[in-house]
Every structure is written in structure tokens, then in C-alpha cells.
Amino acid sequence: MAILVTGGAGYIGSHTVIELLNEGHEVVIVDDYSNSKPEVLNRIKELSGKDFVFHEVDITDKDALKEVFKQHDLEAVIHFAGYKAVGESVAKPLMYYRNNLNGTIALMELMNEFDVKNMVFSSSATVYGMNNEAPFTEDMPLSTTNPYGTTKLFIEQFIQDQVAADPSWSAALLRYFNPIGAHESGRIGEDPNDIPNNLMPYITQVAVGKLEKLSVYGDDYDTPDGTGVRDYIHVVDLAKGHIKALESVLETRGVEAYNLGTGVGYSVLDVVKAFEAANNVEIPYQIVDRRPGDIGSGYADATKAHKVLDWAAELGIEDMCRDSWNWQNSNPNGYA
Ligand code: NAD
Ligand code: WQD
Question: Tell me, what's a Pfam family for it (predicted)?
Fold first, then answer.
């Protein structure tokens, strides 16, 4: 039986597919390439030495997605597919609601129809909103500050409601903190369209000379150096967390949320310094105003994933900085 991976050509999906193949799983990927490129599939084959099935399908196209369910004997779904840019979601909320929510509803209806009731979902630490104090625990009240985050909150609720309605379902809601880094080979990594919104891809593009300098969004937060603190997690550790979550989903019933983070917070300037030290490059920066919607400090209490899933992040900030740079430096134009 195979694992269906929606959005498997994307940044986190591609790293997770490698771990799935390494563990001996059969993999079926669906992706519409709205934020990824076909070349990643060659790289996954090259790194894993294994084959998998790919369907170019937009998951909001239920008829097309149904053909995939008809063709394969599926055991579980790992659901990454969705749009993820916070600022774009504020400008184009309906585009985000349509893609992320309609896509998930079509997917879950087909999971019911074809009796594939095991699901791992890509949620986000963004669901902790602005009113909780770090470290965040899974039982804290949830809220959001932008349409992207709201889609994550709604989908968590869809899944909670579906599991309540049908106890033969099993699901894990994985709340990722800040994924960075790349496969240690430097062959796959994050390849943002346009100017990056997130810190690490911005830093690597400054390092490679595509961007002039980093703007640090505020140095007046209530943090040790005044800049924003986040829980950066190596994408390969995150990918391994999906294997553990999948195993748990297959062995149990019900729904659980898990924080996938390291439990350690680093400030923006910590990351800049760590990147410079790990890679022997200089990152010019300027302090600018806060970015609207940002919190001062956000990091995980990762105890639950450790206890229940037997998962913990193993790679540190140096590994994350080295691997992010290795990917960018050896692929200055990404997969293009
Ligand atoms: P990504 O954009 O690299 O990957 C998402 C993939 O989904 C892309 O390949 C895109 O082409 C595909 N996709 C989007 N809409 C689709 C649709 N309708 N049909 C088929 N394919 C579609 O993003 P990522 O960083 O790998 O994130 C994966 C998931 O994790 C997303 O759901 C994202 O919201 C979530 N997440 C990401 C982060 C992060 O910082 N990267 C943090 C928390 C949660
Ligand atoms: C990290 C820190 C910025 C860029 C976002 C989403 C979240 C999740 C992960 C989901 C903050 C600072 C950033 C820059 C800066 N995504 N920064 N200059 O905002 O924690 O989380 O990505 O898919 O939902 O909100 O991540 O990398 O944007 O920012 O100073 O050019 O770096 O202010 O303190 P964030 P980020």
C-alpha cells in the first residue's frame, strides 16, 4: 500500500518523500507545481535511489484527484499541498481560502469515499496567534492574525470534526515552527519564487549576492537583543518527524496535535551571526521597523512529540546554516 503525499514536490514535502522512500514506503505524489518545479523529482530519485509515482494534479480539482485514488491502493495521506505566504494571504484572502480549504475538503471527501482514513497534516505554529507566551504547548488557546493562519486553524477543525464524526479516522496535526536548512547533499532545498519573505532564504540570497542587505524587522521586542526570537528547525529533522507521526497515526485512532520544533529560540541577530560563523561569509543588515503581525518570541514546548512520538530534533543551528548555504551556493538559481 502507498502513502499519498500532496504537495510532495515542495520544500518540506520533497525532504519527507526522501525519508519515506528510505523507510521502504511506496509513495504517490500529487502536486500542481504552483510553488515547485519538476526538476525536484529527478533529485529525489537521485538521492533516494528509488522510484515513486507522480501525478500533476491540482487537489481542488476533485475529479482529477479521484482518478489518483482510483489508481492506487492508498494507506494514508500526508497533506502538505497549500499556499503558504502570509503577506500574499492578506492581499488575496479568497485565493488562500479557495486553495487551502477547498483542496482539503476535496481530499478528505475522497479519503472517506475510498476508505483511506489515516492523515498527517501540515499545520503551523502560526495557530498560537499573538496572545500566548512561549514556550507554546499544544493545549494553548488558538487564534490567528492572517488568512493563511486561519486556513490552518480551519483545517485543524475540519479534521477534529471528521475524527469525532467517524472514529475509524486517525490524524496528526503537525504544528511546524520555523523550518530551514536543506538536505545535506545540497541537491534539494527551498526555492522561493520572487523575493523571499522568510528570514533564512533572505539571508542566503544576500550571501550569494542576489540581494544587497537584510532588513531586520525591529530591535525593540522584549527579547535578549530586541530582535524577534523563533524556533528554527532543520527540514530533515522535520521530515523525520512525519515518519514518526505516520507510524503513530497508523497504530492508533483519534486525532492529536504535535509541536515540531527544537524547543530552543534564536533571535534574528543570533541567526545572522551563526550563519556568518558557519559559512565564513558576511551578511550586511540594517534595523528597520517591526513587520506588522509579527510576535516578539515564539518557540515550542516539544515535550509531547518527544514523549508520544519518540521524536526529537537532532540537528543544531550550525547544521541549519551550513546546509541552507550549501543548497543556495550550489544552486544559485534554485531548480531553474
Ligand atoms: P511549498 O510551497 O514548498 O510546498 C507546497 C507544495 O504544494 C508546492 O509544491 C505547491 O506546488 C503544492 N500545491 C499548492 N497548492 C496545491 C494544489 N491546489 N494542488 C496541488 N499541489 C498544490 O511549501 P512548504 O514550505 O514545503 O510547506 C508545506 C506545507 O507546510 C504547507 O501546507 C505549509 O503551509 C506548511 N507549513 C510550512 C511552513 C514553512 O515555514 N515552510 C511552516 C508551517 C507550515
Ligand atoms: C522569522 C524572524 C522576522 C525576514 C512565518 C509564518 C509562519 C510559518 C513560518 C508557514 C521574525 C524576522 C524575517 C526578514 C527579518 N510559515 N525577519 N527580516 O514570521 O516566524 O513565520 O514562517 O508556512 O506561519 O508566519 O518566519 O522567517 O518570516 O521570520 O528580520 O527579511 O525573522 O521578523 O522575527 P515567521 P520568518
Answer: GDP_Man_Dehyd
Structure ipTM over 0.85, yes or no: yes
Nearest listed ligand to the Cα of residue 297: 2
Cell 500542481, residue located: 32
Mean pLDDT computed over 75-99: 97
Condensed to tens digits (0 to 9), the pLDDT of residues 214-231 reads: 999 999 999 999 999 999
How buried is 15 (Cβ within 10 angstroms: 0-12 exposed, 13-18 middle, 19+ buried)?
buried
Nearest alpha carbon, ligand 2 atom 11: 228
Output the pLDDT for position 239: 98
The predicted-structure confidence for 242-271, as pLDDT tens digits, reads as follows: 999 999 999 999 999 999 999 999 999 999
pLDDT digits (tens, 9 = 90+) for 159-172: 999 999 999 999 99
Sketch out the chain's domains with CATH numbers.
Answer: 2-182+233-262+304-309 (3.40.50.720), 199-229+264-300+317-330 (3.90.25.10)
Whether 96 lines ligand 1, by a CB cut-off of 6 Å, is no
Residues 6+ away with beta carbon under 8 Å from 164: none
Which residue has a Cα nearest atom 24 of ligand 2? 126
Closest ligand to C-alpha of residue 80 is 1
Atom of ligand 2 nearest to the CA of 149: 24
- Tens-place pLDDT, residues 35-55: 999 999 999 999 999 999 999
pTM: 0.98
Handedness of CA 227, 269, 293, 172 (dihedral sign): negative
Distances (CA, A) of 274 to 89, 198, 283, 287: 31, 17, 11, 18
Q: What HEC string does 209-244 produce?
A: CCCCCEEEECCCCCCCCCCCEECEEEHHHHHHHHHH
For ligand 2, atom 7, the nearest C-alpha belongs to: 126
Distant-in-sequence, close-in-space partners of 319: CB < 8 Å, separation ≥ 6: 181, 234
Give the dihedral sign, CA 278/284/287/293.
negative
Residue range 153-157: mean pLDDT, rounded: 98
